[in-house]
Amino acid sequence: MTTRQTREIRIGNVKIGGSNPVAVQSMTATRTQDIAATIRQVELLEAAGADVIRIAVDNPKDVVALAEIRAARPNANLSIDLQENYRLAEKVAPYVQKLRYNPGHLYHLEREKPVREKVAYLVDVARAYGCAMRIGVNAGSVDPDKLSKYDRDDNITPMLESAIEHCTMLDDLGFDQYCVSIKDSDPNKVIDSNLRFAEARPDVPLHLGVTEAGMPPDGIIKTRIAFEQLLTRGIGDTIRVSLTLPFERKGEEITVGRAILDDIAAGRFRSVPRFEHKGLNIISCPSCSRVENEAFIDLAQNVREMTEYAKAHDITIAVMGCRVNGPGETDDADLGMWCAPSYVNLKRGPESLGHYTYDEILGRLRAELDKLIEERQLAGATR
Questions:
Q1: DSSP 21
Q2: Which of 36, 225, 243, 280 makes an SS bond possible with 271, Cβ 3.0 to 4.6 Å?
Q3: What is the pTM of this model?
Q4: Torsion, CA 57, CA 58, CA 61, CA 66, rounded to 10
């Protein structure tokens, strides 16, 4: 795992960022005003080992309920989700260690008031009560002003712009006890957005999560994909696994989160991180029932051995074993082969270079590889 040194922030007796272990948190799913049920969920999450527990508050009755929940669980590190009513911050702050607000929700109340003024109010409350803050950006509730600036197919850039803008606001107000979350239900978008944010603001601790991940096992798989690809790059300081579960099983979110962290620490991966490679990259599919000639397996091994001389060049070669996946999956490779029963199709990107017998293909591949290397070297020399 790559070590990423963000600033450190404190949430009650838990520290995140810096060199601290990744904290695991969750959120109660009950109605906050159902005090007994919400206390039960807090108990379940504490028993499972939650570092931080989030509760939603959206009206004065929720605030009254929160006070009772705090009295019943005095040692829990509680985070409050302000939902669409940011003005409740001063009411709930005495009972919690962290305030979470969504930039996309700040326009719901007091629409005539500038966003910066609302953020300044939240900072004043957090500072007065010693609370940390989370800027929580979600794909489904992005600031409308940001969405209107970009093509509707690009929902990552508006989220990033919103998160970075609010970081700047907090920085300008002299408040550094905050983290950021950028979430989507698509794990690939979670990966991309957090990679981009971490590059722009490497100092800010990140809360990771795949929102609306769904029911196990699919929800676990989606979450694991995102976490493995981000945490191994040193991106992520606290995590939340979002699963659709019966209330009595809510603690499983914590259990799953810790299992993912344990697997990453031990080098046990269930997903495949995005490939980041310098030098020769040989792709070959696994042998399966669709392979029409077992010579494909030997061919892949022979390609690796024959191309050893080109290992310093950033070139991708694909060796595919069948006509089902082979033609499409070789399109993105610099040089690709897909195997038929008695011949091998050779391609350069999506362009076909013809087909050759299994005895001929290695020589023809080498000729094309040498040609590609020479072209790139000439192009580099003329720049």
A1: P
A2: 225
A3: 0.71
A4: 10
DSSP state of 133: E
> What digits encode the pLDDT tens for the residues 40-88?
999 999 999 999 999 989 899 999 999 999 999 999 999 999 988 999 9
- Quote the CA–CA distance of 153 and 311 in Å, as a whole number: 38
Token representation of residue 263: 């697997």
Residue 267 region, left (φ>0) first, then alpha (ψ -120 to 50), else beta?
left
Closest Cα partner for 23 from 235, 183, 257, 201? 257
Neighbours of 280 (CB within 10 A): 19
Instruction: Collapse the DSSP code of 210 into the 3-class scheme (helix H, G, I; strand E, B; otherwise coil) and give the result.
Output: coil
CA-CA distances (angstroms) from residue 49 to 109, 208, 261?
36, 18, 13
Which pair of structure tokens corresponds to residue 56? 């939603």
Domain spanning 281-381: CATH superfamily:
Sulfite Reductase Hemoprotein, domain 1 (3.30.413.10)
Q: With bands split at pLDDT 50, 70 and 90, how would you rate the model's confidence at 289?
A: very low
Q: If residue 303 lies in a helix (H) or strand (E), which one and from where to where?
A: helix 295-306
Considering only CA atoms, which of 75, 49, 77 is closest in space to residue 261?
Answer: 49
H/E run at residue 280: none
CATH number, domain 9-266, options 3.40.50.1390, 3.60.110.10, 3.50.50.60, 3.20.20.20: 3.20.20.20
